[in-house]
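ok so i was messing around last nite and threw this chain in just to see what happens. nothing serious, just curious
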Amino acid sequence: MQTTTRLRKGDVVQVMTGRSRGKSGKILRIDHAKARVYVENVQTVKRHVKPSQKQPQGGVVEKEASIHWSAVQLLCGHCAKPVRIRIKKSDNKGMQRLCIKCAHPIGN
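result:
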């Protein structure tokens, strides 16, 4: 199973497959063990929560569910399209992620 990805927390991605196709949002967290990402305001589910000290009233909470990371694609900030990325090694900046379409560096 693949355990590495070129995606990072805070990246803006677009969902390419499934019922949430076309939606975009920021990556909240990445689960490397299960190869899944949690994207803000995409794939939300409702969960019933018992009253606790953290939530004294309890009730129904809406939160993000995970999506397999192969179903999302990084959005380039420069060309505003979902793109694949290339890794470029340079001496002074280390490793950089570049957009394949416009060769613009993607924020680190």
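not much to say yet. The longest strand covers residues 24-31.
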